[in-house]
Amino acid sequence: MVRHLRLEQVETDAPGERATLHHPLHRREHASRPYTVHESEGKALPASVVAGENTLNDERVNPFGVCDMFRIGIGPSSSHTVGPMRAGLHFSTHLATRHSTSHITHIRVDLFGSLAATGRGHNTDRAVLLGLSGFNPETVPISTVDSIEADIDRRGTLLIPGFSAIPFERARDIVFSPRVIFPYHVNAMTITAYGEPGEDENAVAVVDNGGERVGQIPRALVGEGVAIATHTYYSVGGGFVMEECGDPAEPCVAPLATDEQEAAAKVAVPYAYRSATELLALCKETGMSIAQLAMANETALRSREAVIAHMDRVYAVMGEAIKQGTTTHGVLPGGLNVERRAPGLAAKLEGARLRGRAGAGFDGAGVGGVGAGNAGDTWAGAGHVNVGASGSGFGESADFGANPAFARDPLEQMGWVNLFALAVNEENAAGHRIVTAPTNGAAGIIPAVLSYYEHFVAGANREGMYDFLLAGAAIGGLIKTNASIAGAEVGCQGEVGSASAMAAAGFAQALGGTPLQVENSAEIAMEHSLGLTCDPVGGLVQIPCIERNAIAAVKAINAAYMALWGDGTHSVSFDTVIETMRQTGQDMLSKYKETSEGGLAVNVVEC
């Protein structure tokens, strides 16, 4: 899908703001139905339209599903790490397939806006290098993640598959321009390959006929020479990436998509919706739960086996992140000297539990041990924490209610929820593998609540896990469609707030909630996340991000129970809260939107 957008320049923002280029539609008033707003009305576009996945007027747009909202990648950021890595991989693949006979002499990476402002703390530069080197976020070895920068510095070259070693100096060839904001999106980057074209190729001149620009790159930022290829990408949040096409006079963008995604986009799902109101109406009409309806849509696009396999993989990676996070000690990278807390908390919680009931403990080497699982349901042996004397999985392990330690203080269960969230987010901060859910900065919330369901809810089972993920993805898709999940666009309310809403909805669904109760769960969690700023200290996804995930996970559980205690009727709709979040994010100063120029980022002393 290609979206053509008119662009104009605005010289300055409000006092204290950076000079910015805007899409004219970003200056808007309230829209009661943002998913049907027309460009001609002069109102802002929903994030999914800006991202190119949805159109404005197609009422049968395919909703985002579980395969869209849960993606496996590496930390610390989906928009600043996973997205740029995908862009780098796309560019290297393009070179190998379209310019294989060229002699590449130089690669230049330009990072703009928020990608540049917090790019070093988010390892954006490293992510692009990993992608250019041919690595995929889902499968790249963590040892390679940790070593690639030192390897490039030692060799003085970049190894792009299919080409000879290319001279490369990180300080020279990766340029950070935080005050250059592109019209389309704040997270922009351009990769350019210079050299000698093959005999059958046409070189692209770096300087156009006007002598000032190539695509959207100011000449001063590019330099002179012959460019074999130059691509501009936009990392729009959650690992979603757009590529600019066309020319500056009539720019357009198109999403990066796999062959499977492109094929799926051509299939109309049986139950299309663009709002929670429409989703609830479909559930009422069909008698299906939100999870059942989401699965029906998923299986229209791919086999049920493929959907199940994806959810199993998501569950396994979440569990492995908890396991690694609770057993890995040390200081997180980046210079803030943040000590990993999950291992210490795990030891304290386990000690308290053992004192409460002799003989109970984790299977294997403490927290994260992999047990045998139940005889009839062994899926919990995929790396999640196994609780109980037998180290078993769902059902048998969910016996904490009998523990005298919890009888003395039932709220001690929150400690375990905190543990699960801290473990995942510390792994994310270390740049290790996690599930983008729906972003990396909020990656600990859904695993924490899902693990709470697994270990503290009697009767928890595999089908409940699937329902959790399906319903959570449906809720997250609504937020992405009608607002944003990117901290660089709407602040942390779009990341942690969205994840908390997804977790609350998923948990309510797993507990058997009605569609109205599930929607109410999401509404409560999001409503009480409104206004959260994204102001990471040092540009790192550590302070306040790690603790914030733990707090939001507990909030999600509370939101679900509050909704389940009622019959689903409530005063504020989820659609209203989504639109409120979007408006709040639009009004929020850019210094509170993943630029580290305000809030805690400037008031906490880095030492």
UniProtKB/TrEMBL annotation:
Coiled coil: none
Catalytic activity reported: L-serine = pyruvate + NH4(+)
SUPFAM superfamilies in UniProt: Serine metabolism enzymes domain
The organism's place on the tree of life at top rank: Bacteria
The name this protein goes by in its record: L-serine ammonia-lyase
Pathway: Carbohydrate biosynthesis; gluconeogenesis
Cofactor(s) required for function per UniProt: [4Fe-4S] cluster
Family label: Belongs to the iron-sulfur dependent L-serine dehydratase family.
Species the sequence originates in: Actinotignum urinale
Keyword Cell division: no
